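Hello support,

Our group uses your service weekly, and this is the first time we've seen a run hang past the timeout. The protein is Putative serine recombinase. I'm not sure whether the cause is the sequence or the server load. Input pasted verbatim:
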Amino acid sequence: MTKYGYARVSSKSQENNSSLEGQKQQLIENGILEKNILVEVGSAANEIKNRPIFQTLINQKLQEGNVLMVTKIDRCSRNTLEFLKLQDILFKRKIEFISLDLPHSDDPGINRLIATTLSSIAEFEHNRRKKRQAAGIRAAQKEGKYQGRKTIIDKTLIQKVEYLKEQKNLSVTDISKLTGVSTPTIYKVLKEHLGYVSNRLVKPEEPNAAK
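Update from on-call engineer: The timeout came from a worker crash unrelated to the input. Re-ran successfully.
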């Protein structure tokens, strides 16, 4: 019987911190060989079919009688319907699913029931947390305390904007799309850092050099 582990983090920044290493260590301590641990960077909100590493694990590596282990059920999915689909696939292929944050029984039917119930709770808690966050942002906006994420205007961004505007003659909208920076920020760079004036975005003519 081969055991596989799946570890997932939501972002590249988490990939380099203790979250990922903690998951791998837990899996190793519970009998998973390090070579059999597959790691992925991607949101649990994404459909399982849109996570290539997980797809490889499910469709190419796991065989009948194998074990799939995760440290927490939300490493697989925070969407109950998606998790039910996964459970059905594993159950039909006689692959045992173990989540280390759940009670485990020798009865596969009981394990399936527990996992499905906890998946529903995880989705409920995730959605409730998002609603609280949205409500907090709305309240802060009313009080003028929430400004959203601030884009850092650095030398690299200024040089990119200057090149796209002066060498490629692109519009502010096009520059915004290419750089992934909001149009107000592009206007700010042009006016405050590159010397453009007014919404016409023209540079004042330099005085003629003295003869």
